Amino acid sequence: MQLHNLKRKTALKSKKQVGRGGKRGKTSGRGTKGQNARAGRKKRPEMRDIIKKIPKLRGYFFNTIQDAVKSVTLSTVAVHFESGAEITLQSLAEKGVIATYKGRLPRVKILGDRKPNEFTKKISIKGVPVSASVKLQIENAGGKVE
Fold first, then answer.
1. What is the dihedral of CA 80, 83, 86, 87, to 10 degrees?
2. Is 47 helix (H, G, I), strand (E, B) or coil?
3. Hey, which residues does 109 pair with through a beta bridge?
4. Whether 8 contacts 14, CB under 8 Å
5. What percent of the chain has pLDDT over 70?
6. In a 3-state reduction of DSSP, which class is residue 52?
7. DSSP states of 103-123
8. Which of 90, 126, 128, 144 sits in a 20 to 30 Å window from 105, CA-based?
9. What are the phi and psi torsion angles at 37 (to 5°)?
10. Beta bridge mates, 70
């Protein structure tokens, strides 16, 4: 066994060494002037500058509380409620028509269907906003909207 036959136990990663001289010295293999040629050079990632320029929203922002109005169709109400029933936000939640979020009831509006004038149940709605066409259908069926 000769010295030139010995092999390492662990494999070496081929790592390019920069800044150890060259054929004539000069840039020492670095190739450029300025920041790139200096020892211990640190280039900032360009995404950092982009992120820093984006306007940030400060403070707390409660999006979950400020939900949009949930819509419930009149046909859904007709399926879940009997004739003569009183419809409120609580009764809609109890029947499973709307879901509560952290114990709070969402804002709801009852909207009409594509097929008008088929509603025949006599119901009363309290504290829930309705569209003009729904109000007309309920009053024609003998119900009332408050």
1. 30
2. helix
3. 71
4. no
5. 80
6. helix
7. TBPPPEEEE--SSTT------
8. 144
9. -85, -10
10. 108
